[in-house]
Amino acid sequence: MSLSSPASLLEVALQPGKPATLQVDSPGDAPGWAARHREALRARVTEHGAVLVRGLGLREPAQVGAVFAGLAGELMTEREAFAPRESYGPGLYSSSTWPPNQPMCMHHELSYTLEVPGLMLFACLTAADEGGATGVADAEQMLQALPTTLTERFEREGWLLTRSYNDEIGASLTESFGTEDRAAIEQYCRSRAIDFTWQSDGSLHTRQRRSAVVRHPVTGRRCWFNQIAFLNEWTLAPEVREYLVDVYGEDGLPFNTRFGDGTPISEDIVQQLNATYEEHTRREPWRPGDLMLVDNIRTAHSREPYSGERQVLVAMAEPRRLADHSATVEVNPR
């Protein structure tokens, strides 16, 4: 395939059950290739929601960081992380620390923040021996496939995220807020419509209500945009949930989600959300050197269980404040 002009990037392969894939001949200078073809590649991401680029030969973090910068410009610093990451430079991270034998189900990265990433960038340096794919699912299709009564309720009420920060599970205060200073954390929460309470043991409990359905800022189409299933207690492995409830109590789980009015979300609803995601998942096993770009508002992503070593670097870019991404904390806890 010739890569002499951006028009060549129209030639993505489309196969059922797989993300749109672009096979390139190793350009040697991957960062230069990325900068030259940025606009055409980004147009394909807008068209398909996600594009897997195969053949760039990405091998080490500095090279990946240069490719990401060429495609997206300035990378975002992650705030309100739900799990630790290793940093490889400004805005360049490892994938979230999560048990390899447990899936990370479909979600839109940082959908509970006020400034959400418009673009996710992934690069595979080491592929797992088995599993470990980063699946993608179309948020417009999800909204259409879910029961109308359910989506209308979430669209009307939004969804509530509760978090309890501790030293054992999930990201620490420093990893989430960039500081342990109480005054700075409180100011951050106030400025972003996050209700917060310091517990007697010094830990922090927060609540924030966000929209579950938003309009895409480019296409104007309505998208199922949230982390309702991923951060819900019923998505946890049963033995993990049982342990956490036993140690921290149901109100002290590291993270949980509810309907916007504070009503608990039942296990069957969470199962329905995850089953619907599975029906719309496109996946392709990683190969070393792969690059994938994901429209974070149009497309949810997941990480499947794996065995062996796996190294996938991640970046977030194009911060967006969505016009219909409401942020309130006025709820009636139940």
TrEMBL record:
Its cofactor is Fe(2+). It holds the Pfam family TauD. It comes from the Bacteria. Residues 33-315 form the TauD/TfdA-like domain. Coiled coil: none annotated. Keywords: Antibiotic biosynthesis, Dioxygenase, Iron, Oxidoreductase. The keyword Iron applies. One of its GO terms (molecular function) is dioxygenase activity. InterPro entries: AlphaKG_dependent_hydroxylases (IPR050411), TauD-like_sf (IPR042098), TauD/TfdA-like (IPR003819). Gene3D superfamilies: Clavaminate synthase-like (3.60.130.10). The keyword DNA-binding does not apply. PANTHER family: GAMMA-BUTYROBETAINE HYDROXYLASE-RELATED, TAUD_TFDA-LIKE DOMAIN-CONTAINING PROTEIN. This is TauD/TfdA family dioxygenase.
